[in-house]
Amino acid sequence: MVALTIGATAALLLGQASAYHQERRQVGSEKHTVVIPGASSYNGLNLIPQMGWNNWNAFHCDVNESLLLTTAQDMVDYGLRDSGYNYIVLDDCWAVGRNESGYLVADDYKFPSGMKSIITKIHALGFKFGMYSSAGVLTCGRYPGSLGYEKKDADLWAEWGVDYLKYDNCFNQGQSGTPKLSFDRYKVMSDALNQTGKEIVYAMCNWGNDDPYDWAYRIANSGRMSGDIYDSFNRPDDRCPCTEAAGCAWPGFHCSVMNILNKMPAITSRTMSGYFNDMDMLEVGNGGQSDSEYVVHFSMWAINSSPLLIGTNVGTLSPANLAIYSNPAIIAINQDTSASAAKRVWRYTTDPDETGEGEISLWTRSLSNGDRIVALLNAANITMNMNVTINEVFFDERTAGAYRAPPELSQTWDIYDLWANRMGEAEAAAILNGTSVEIPANSTTRFNATASTYAKGVESAHPALIGSRVGTLQPSGTFTAEIARHSVGVYRLRSREAAMRKRDEL
Ligand SMILES: *[C@@H]1O[C@H](CO)[C@@H](O)[C@H](O)[C@H]1NC(C)=O
Ligand SMILES: *[C@@H]1O[C@H](CO)[C@@H](O)[C@H](O)[C@H]1NC(C)=O
Ligand SMILES: *[C@@H]1O[C@H](CO)[C@@H](O)[C@H](O)[C@H]1NC(C)=O
Ligand SMILES: *[C@@H]1O[C@H](CO)[C@@H](O)[C@H](O)[C@H]1NC(C)=O
Ligand SMILES: *[C@@H]1O[C@H](CO)[C@@H](O)[C@H](O)[C@H]1NC(C)=O
Ligand SMILES: *[C@@H]1O[C@H](CO)[C@@H](O)[C@H](O)[C@H]1NC(C)=O
Ligand SMILES: *[C@@H]1O[C@H](CO)[C@@H](O)[C@H](O)[C@H]1NC(C)=O
Ligand SMILES: *[C@@H]1O[C@H](CO)[C@@H](O)[C@H](O)[C@H]1NC(C)=O
């Protein structure tokens, strides 16, 4: 009972702290500051989710320097770097051992120019560089791990110019099973990275083991919350036995998109600026799902503030998949400074005989400028007319207590479809074949996040970020949309009253 009470209080504090998104807050008119622990990034890094590319899902151990360099160049040419995907992350299987002084040695067959020189070239292309290791004696691919060598490894990476570490959990010598064991083990690397004095984003990959939702935000910038993803929309697999994140003792692998997504609702309050629940790397482009299933995968990762790491072969990207990865109206939600996750308001399993086996669910998310996101997810097997009422959109406000009537319920909300302006096949093909390079300032399909930021773009109502108006939600109203099987409608809701007030202030 006592433990329960403490847990509940901690959850409340964490929830409040993350709502402020800042470490110091002015109290009254005095220059008196209060530090809210955990209210922001522990090391000041990664205030919005990291974006980039990681080789694992498409290439596993078949990596080498030309793959890294050609992928980086392709990402520049296809506008992906300028869409915000600015980390190139090398995964497992790069080190061959340690030298006599105990430092890691990179495979000089795969990386003949040497890691430092490759990283310098990646930097010159306008990217940051991510490195991989494991908090164990071996990595998952049985290459040398960093347990016991944290200081040496962090120093070497810093010297090479590494900007990011993905830190796995294999071969941990049994130093797991309680939050304290995992916290202590992962903290050693956190401290070692910090002590290098170089800014290095720390991406924990312990698959949600030992409930990192309670402790990892104090030592890391993101944390995987599930066993490994595989390229399936909803196929259950015995090797991914958990359906909930909290208390999952055996995260496993071969987790489907729907399995991982449905683990998120319980832990949404544990997403905050500087610490993101990592739903794992994207599978878009790898061939195991339909176009609309990839749209669901990308959209739901984005609105939950998961890191967005392209996990496919960029060199063979199809126009349709480029269009998904580039949708700026969806990325703008992910990169919103509110740095929060979506809430699942309801979820119903559907009747196999009447509506096709599966489920439907409603997700909402608030954004820093007061806009709302609504996602109508149809994971059933037939097209559905899905409904959302204003009471459902503002469910939390409505149930927050009786001290005030939620003003949102008496406002009129314009509804913008965020997939309506998806880049067409011809435009995407022209980008891929090099005919179209520059992103025009007035594009409705592309946004240059190198020239500006998503936050500034939304503020100026950039045409690529707001979608296309498809309806309104009135006080006590309902919005209905036809959603095809295995697809999602994602909408941005803007209050007319708030927009008018803003105009008056100008
Ligand atoms: C590098 O890796 C890629 C992807 O696995 C492969 O296609 C290519 O042949 C490799 N190149 C070299 C020089 O080994
Ligand atoms: C081991 O590697 C480190 C880092 O690359 C290097 O500074 C050191 O000289 C090497 N030691 C030996 C004995 O080769
Ligand atoms: C190290 O951590 C401290 C907070 O403990 C932070 O202020 C500092 O910026 C960090 N430095 C680096 C290089 O990460
Ligand atoms: C889903 O519908 C497709 C036809 O669209 C059908 O082939 C398939 O068997 C159905 N799957 C399930 C699980 O009902
Ligand atoms: C949405 O509302 C319409 C009209 O009331 C109804 O026919 C339909 O079944 C509803 N959709 C769902 C998924 O409940
Ligand atoms: C590039 O793609 C565009 C759009 O599909 C097409 O019109 C054009 O002919 C292609 N150019 C080349 C060089 O392949
Ligand atoms: C995006 O903007 C940057 C900085 O202004 C510019 O260098 C780059 O070429 C632009 N990218 C595209 C694809 O238009
Ligand atoms: C963007 O501006 C260019 C040049 O001013 C114009 O030709 C084009 O039609 C505009 N595109 C859109 C989508 O407004």
Automatic annotation (TrEMBL):
The protein in question is named Alpha-galactosidase
Q: Which family does it belong to?
A: Belongs to the glycosyl hydrolase 27 family.
| Family matches, as Pfam families | Melibiase_2, Melibiase_C
What is one GO cellular-component annotation here? extracellular region
Organism source for this protein? Cucurbitaria berberidis CBS 394.84
UniProt domain Alpha galactosidase C-terminal: residue ranges: 357-444
Question: What this chain does, per the record?
Answer: Hydrolyzes a variety of simple alpha-D-galactoside as well as more complex molecules such as oligosaccharides and polysaccharides.
An example GO biological process term is:
melibiose catabolic process
This enzyme's EC code(s): 3.2.1.22
Question: What residue stretch is flagged as signal peptide?
Answer: 1-19
Q: Where in the cell is it found?
A: Secreted
Which top-rank group of organisms is this from? Eukaryota
Q: Does the keyword Repeat apply?
A: no
Which reaction(s) does the protein catalyse, per the Swiss-Prot or TrEMBL entry?
Answer: Hydrolysis of terminal, non-reducing alpha-D-galactose residues in alpha-D-galactosides, including galactose oligosaccharides, galactomannans and galactolipids
